[in-house]
């Protein structure tokens, strides 16, 4: 009995927190009202005499007399009678009198509704509401729809499959409001049966409907703080063509988000000061190891295939994964209700097509989507891309020395010959890329969905250097007809394939479950050839011809395959508490081979298995404050160790202040990474792609890298359409992993056909990243504009280099300003503009200089190519590369403008976008090369293309 009484009063305490303080017992009729609502209800006095009247009749009479609003379960009052004699009592005290001796009580909600409940002396009974929210016309599930329980001041949102659940609701009728952007709001009255789950399929009509506003005191349709700690871009934004290439580019879109940087001209992303390999990109939950195309100049995904991009930043939750900087989530698009059955787009770089349809098999609806994209290089060589590849593949004479004279001594005068400046060669770029996506959703039952998807992408890029004219002599030989040896061919290519199947369904009374299996495979290869261009007689004695000779260097190659499975539960413990649980297993195999003129060939083969258990709890302390806490446990088989990653976040929302709505989020935790990416600089003097990426699971010889995050963010909405975001973060990185270039160069490590321990070529480093940002955005029906400013400082040590000091990272952007604006002119026309400014970039020379020409004393090096280059670098006139933070690039400034048109004619949607990239025609410098001039040097900058117009066309049906 004591436990039963305690449980009853505990339930009343929860209701007090959610709905306000209840009335005092009937016996205390002379007590003062406790709430504003009761004070308001006490202004009038009523009299009533009841002798054995059915309680339902008595309550109806009470409502008729007082004109009050009341909600109760008919089963709750059935069989009960009321005995009450009252004279000149206010409404609350009159209701207490009516309920006297019935074992029932009431609470008064903040909107003035009397809710009849079981007395604290009796055990309250609960039930659940669960279901799915779909488009009424197509049956498509609607993710992230808002579910609001008006009379209980709580709510939730649907998951990616449109499923939702609300747990531990008091029995009886509840008013549920369901809303989704662009749909008519649905208001339903759902009866909650005690001890049962009430399932509903809620259909929303995709038509705007003007209604009187529905106000739920103390609760917004979606707590804005839930969007803090992440940045998102929807399908329409992902399809916007990048002005620099004229094609849709996921990476460029992500780079416009606050705290996310894309380092031009590459498509590598950096999250809040982190390296490109310190986050992971996942497509439908599957890792995509190299999410770039055209040699890391364009993102690897068709923009028509994707529905949403979400970037999780510092302080992200335990369920998102184990990565040092963050996670980039991509989702295939099966939800756009306005998507035409078929869409075709063309731009200077690619042709992109999409088809989607819904049909039934054995009464089960199936939605299928497919896209295909192919590069247009063989048909049309885009001038911007051609100019970019040509400039990027320009011959670097300093690196060419390592290959060009394999037998010359370091003092040979040919090492200062200016012919290596590439003035006598023309470039023949080559570009190939394609990708396809497919996804399908099967509605097995109204509350059970199967989702399958697949992706395959391939890319190749390179350049050949061919002599324009014969050389009459080579250095050191007046009569020779042989030109100096040159790097003649460079090619970099990769293939990426992923697939997954996920089942989601409602389990039991208060649980949503999912099971997923997936596979991912990545295979990259780079080829580099050195040779000579020779001049000799042709078969026709009256003419001459040229031939290319030389040897192929062994290919560099990297492969990584991953198989995995995971199961997840989303459990609603109560209306204000939920917990997520996930268990999974991963099996990976990585193989790579790298080598060049500066380092000996290194081969590595590793198989790794990991088991993961993660949990995250969410508790609403009150209507304004939510606490999230969780942890990840990862068992690494190679080290027989379990690693923990605890994390915590506190969110606060206040929608009713004199200065407007505002939300806050404070988060932090421990973050590790168990599969690391290493970008190894390529030695190719004409390499289009400056680095080769290698993915490695950590082996037994090194501990996984570790970082600590602290972040604070705020969102302020002073007026409709105007939002101000602020964020700050600090990442402390006591243990990072980095390639030890000096150790590789010396050849100290023993490299055999068997895999060496990773500790022989990977060393520990440390670092930190701190920064802050602010974004001001305004949007209405005519204009959409935003301006953001980010300041950051990212530093770390590099093994055996730079005297052990922490130096700025190559990707750090100390000051960055981004601005975008779009103006809707009308009649389908629009104007667009974007502006980017970056100040303070360091590492002004090619990254290979800092990686291969710094570190231990040159005399310790046994690699001939390195010694030959070092001999020249040691000259007094040559710059050093030991202080990269002092080598600062000029400011980066870029302005793009666009003029768009989009209209529908007879069911056919026509779109066109004319853009002009780099309107100011600035020569934005990416890095610099050194050109030897006998006993001195000049530098040659590599720049982005100048002013360039592009046109993109789209047709949808």
Automatic annotation (TrEMBL):
<dbReference type="GO" id="GO:0019867">
    <property type="term" value="C:outer membrane"/>
</dbReference>
<feature type="compositionally biased region" description="Polar residues">
    <location>
        <begin position="531"/>
        <end position="548"/>
    </location>
</feature>
<feature type="domain" description="Secretin/TonB short N-terminal">
    <location>
        <begin position="68"/>
        <end position="119"/>
    </location>
</feature>
<keyword id="KW-0472">Membrane</keyword>
<feature type="region of interest" description="Disordered">
    <location>
        <begin position="220"/>
        <end position="246"/>
    </location>
</feature>
<protein>
    <recommendedName>
        <fullName>Secretin/TonB short N-terminal domain-containing protein</fullName>
    </recommendedName>
</protein>
<dbReference type="InterPro" id="IPR011662">
    <property type="entry name" value="Secretin/TonB_short_N"/>
</dbReference>
<keyword id="KW-0813">Transport</keyword>
<dbReference type="Pfam" id="PF13715">
    <property type="entry name" value="CarbopepD_reg_2"/>
</dbReference>
<keyword id="KW-0732">Signal</keyword>
<feature type="region of interest" description="Disordered">
    <location>
        <begin position="531"/>
        <end position="553"/>
    </location>
</feature>
<keyword id="KW-0998">Cell outer membrane</keyword>
<dbReference type="InterPro" id="IPR008969">
    <property type="entry name" value="CarboxyPept-like_regulatory"/>
</dbReference>
<feature type="signal peptide">
    <location>
        <begin position="1"/>
        <end position="27"/>
    </location>
</feature>
